[in-house]
Structures are given as structure tokens and as C-alpha cells.
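Proteins fold reproducibly. Next comes a concrete instance:

***
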Amino acid sequence: MDTKTVQALLNDFKEGRLSMEKALQLLKNLPFEDLEFAKVDHHRGFRGTIPEVIYARSKRKEEVVAIARAMYEKCRRFLITRATEDIYQELGMKEAKYYPASGMIACGERQRKKGSVLVISAGTSDIPVAEEAEVAASFLGSSTGRLYDVGVAGIHRLFSRREALQKARVIIVVAGMEGALPSVVGGLTDRPVVAVPTSVGYGTSLGGLTALFSMLNSCVPGMAVVNIDNGFGAGCLAHKINMMGSR
């Protein structure tokens, strides 16, 4: 449940289209619904811009499905990260969409998009994390674009798309290996850059630590860095920044 939902509910009650009993029934699960194995925070979207999101990894399929259905019943939308096709099939919701590259399941995505978030991946192997970032930002209401496989080994591929960098309001840059691409992008544009290190790379990439350290030590000032493989977190941050210019 988000601010718009509560406003609509209160307006329906004020105009007599909704009874007191029905309004109380709809509001009774604020701030959360207890499913025993999970306490679903329906109120989170009302308190801020990011509603509760379901992290599927390490949960049983039945648990993920139960949480998703509880959220759908209250607000007709949910977002699941790190999911599998088995979970999507178990949901059996035609309203939901499955993104196999990133393991995202989205239902009730905002149809009116605002601003511009550009998601860039250094290599094809970084696309799963990049897609996670794009799906998250788009689900929340940001207009998104993508620019894939433009890493520093063939930097001319990026230079040919400099116009796209200038048109974006926020840029997410996803890179593994040595993690150099966010610094390059940050040096080419005055747009906010959100850097995402990935665990892509050979031995001394140390599961993404090398890329993380490179991004944290970038000489480009004002660049934000999220955790390794955290496309979802990058998408949320980029969306918040994007919305600041869309009010």
C-alpha cells in the first residue's frame, strides 16, 4: 500500500463510496501482515518511495509465493528479486512478468514513467545485474534505457553513444573485472553515476572485490557505489535521484 492508494481510499470514504467497515478492513493490516514465517510490511511504500520487495533466494518456493500473493491482494503489485522460473510458474499470475536474465518477477509496474535512467553494462556477462537495476527502476516508475557491452576493452563503443549519456538524468554503470568503466563514464558526463561492481572476472577479481575497490577509489568525485552484484540497490538509488528532478 502506497500514498496514492491510501489517498484514494480516504477519498472514497469521504465521498460515500466506501463504508467505514470496508475502510477499516482495508486498513487493518497496516503496518504489517503476520504470515508466521514472514511479516509483510504493506506500510513501507506509504512511509517512503520504495515498497517492500521480496528477496527469493534462501526462501522456500511456497514462502515466496505466499508473500507475493499477500502483497498482490492488498495493493495489486509486487517485485521479487533473485527468483527462478519455478517460482514464476507457481505464482500462476498472468499479470506478472518474469525476467530470466536477472531472475526478477514484476507485477503492477508503474505505467507512467518519469525522467531518464540509463543502465550501462561493461560486458555481456554483466547483463544479469544490469537488468536487475533496470527492472527495479522501471518498476518504481522511472523511464529507463540500456547500453550494453561497452567496456573499456573497446572504449570506442561507448564514445559513439555520448549523446545518450547527456540525455540521461541518472546513469547506472555495471562492471566486473577491473571495474574501470564507471570512472570513464563519470569523466564524460555531469550526470549522477551509480556504480555497481559485479563478481564477473578471473581469480584476482576476488569475487568482485577488485571492481568494488576500484570504484570506491575512483578519482571521479561524487560517484556512488553500491554492493557487489546489487543491481536492485542501484536501481532504487537511481530512481530516487531521478524522481527528485521529476516533481
Remarks:
- The mean pLDDT is 87.
